[in-house]
Amino acid sequence: MSPYLAAEDLSMFGTDPWWLVVVKAVFCFAFLMVTVLFSIVWERKVVAWMQLRIGPNRHGPWGLLQSLADGVKLMLKEDVIVKRADKVVYVLAPIVAAIPAFMAIAVIPFGPADNEVSVFGHRTAMQLTDLPIAMLYILAVASVGIYGIVLAGWSSGSTYPLLGGLRSCAQMISYEIAMGAAFASVFLYSGSMSTSTIVEQQQDRWYILLLPVSFILYIVTMVGETNRAPFDMPESEGDLVGGFNTEYSSIKFAMFMLAEYVNMVTVSAVATTLFLGGWRAPWPVSGFWAGANHGWWPLLWFVVKVQLLLFFFIWLRGTLPRVRYDQLMKLGWKVLIPVSVTWLMLVATVRALRNENYDFADIALYVGGGVLALLLLSFVADMFREKARTAEQPAPQQPGFDPMAGGFPVPPMPGQELPPVPRRRPRRERELIVSGGPDTVSDGSTDGKEASDG
């Protein structure tokens, strides 16, 4: 084994009594639910602050119970099942979308595994469980949740929900590849897919400093994965009337909303674990306080980092407009995937050189030489492309656009222009024509009275 690979010690997991496993599972569920309730209120408050509004302020102190009141209201609403729906799939789709969102939190570490805490007198790790392939488990579970959205759109028996489900499926495929490549860079540096081991490997430096491109890629893909603004195309109200959940109501509609916010918390927890040091205290705190990473304090640092990432979600929603669907696909396939694959190859090259005991100067030389070679090749390719473009004959002019050619008005396609609108006659001339005068006056050339006298 390479000296840079981490030695995985997962012997502390799987030894808890059954009642403690149940307690930790209930804690993970309660953590997600409380965070979701808080995030909904926080999002409405922050967006209201950005838009100079008040926001929710009726239910509970400062409106903190607004999301709980909304949940109770949705549960008491009439539960409608449309006549054309496939009833079994229609009912199961919200469950399929919500349950996988809760499952990923099982392998997220809330604290160090070796520094165990006491729960009812029993020493245990601050993590439900861990696996040698924990990150693959998270990817697999996250991919299952999309089936709920696709099946919801298909089983509704309507056009707009089906389009929303297909959009979501295409969006997931586009962004899952770049997300996997961002994960692979972390695997190469940590030498493990275990979440607790990845956090342990960030003792000296967080991976946001070592792998900044991977962090940026994951931040963009996690917004696309959760269908949040500006990538909320499956729920585009302007052209899909709500998207895949159009035909849902009551508790089933609430489960789709719950799945969205739980996924936000889950991807934020994954970003914290992979790039932000996990449960580790930030540098100013850990520098002067030796006990910052011991006891129950790591839970506080973890929650603060997750809330900061949730604020980032809210900030994006209140700042950026929704992109077009072609822009969404172009960003995923033509930008994120090529950049993520190129960055992964670069990280793999650096790790291979480190494993061969090359020093940092040689690594910087090889990497810099490779980057310069790529820039040179791209410059030469652009130069020849520009030469070929100038040598081409100008494109023939398109025939004039007639908006009434099909018998009804249609908007122009890209590259087409509407014919100029004829200028309206002055009011005085129109009155003269209506009163019986001859329609011989040109616009603005002569006065209407002189023309009639002549």
From TrEMBL:
- Biased region (Pro residues) positions are 409-421
Instruction: Name the Gene Ontology biological process terms.
Output: aerobic respiration
Q: Does Metal-binding appear among the keywords?
A: no
Domain of life, per lineage: Bacteria
State the PANTHER family in the record: NADH DEHYDROGENASE SUBUNIT 1, NADH-UBIQUINONE OXIDOREDUCTASE CHAIN 1
Tell where it localizes: Cell membrane; Membrane
Which GO terms label this protein's molecular function in UniProt? NADH dehydrogenase activity; oxidoreductase activity, acting on NAD(P)H, quinone or similar compound as acceptor; quinone binding
Name the Pfam families for this protein. Answer: NADHdh
* Organism annotation: Streptomyces lucensis JCM 4490
Per its record, the protein catalyses:
a quinone + NADH + 5 H(+)(in) = a quinol + NAD(+) + 4 H(+)(out)
- According to its UniProt record, the EC number is 7.1.1.-
Instruction: Give the top-level enzyme category.
Output: translocase
State whether it acts alone or in a complex, and with which partners, per the record. Answer: NDH-1 is composed of 14 different subunits. Subunits NuoA, H, J, K, L, M, N constitute the membrane sector of the complex.
Q: Where are the transmembrane segments?
A: 18-42, 88-111, 131-154, 175-194, 206-224, 261-279, 299-319, 331-351, 363-381
Q: Which UniProt keywords apply?
A: Cell membrane, Membrane, NAD, Quinone, Translocase, Transmembrane, Transmembrane helix, Ubiquinone
Cross-referenced InterPro entries: NADH_UbQ_OxRdtase_su1/FPO, NADH_UbQ_OxRdtase_su1_CS
Q: Does the keyword Transmembrane apply?
A: yes
Q: Where is this protein chiefly located? A: membrane
Q: What does this protein do?
A: NDH-1 shuttles electrons from NADH, via FMN and iron-sulfur (Fe-S) centers, to quinones in the respiratory chain. The immediate electron acceptor for the enzyme in this species is believed to be ubiquinone. Couples the redox reaction to proton translocation (for every two electrons transferred, four hydrogen ions are translocated across the cytoplasmic membrane), and thus conserves the redox energy in a proton gradient. This subunit may bind ubiquinone.
Report residue spans for region: Disordered: 391-454
Please report the name of this protein according to its UniProt entry: NADH-quinone oxidoreductase subunit H
The way this protein sits in the membrane is described as: Multi-pass membrane protein
The record's similarity note reads: Belongs to the complex I subunit 1 family.
Q: Which GO terms describe its cellular component?
A: plasma membrane
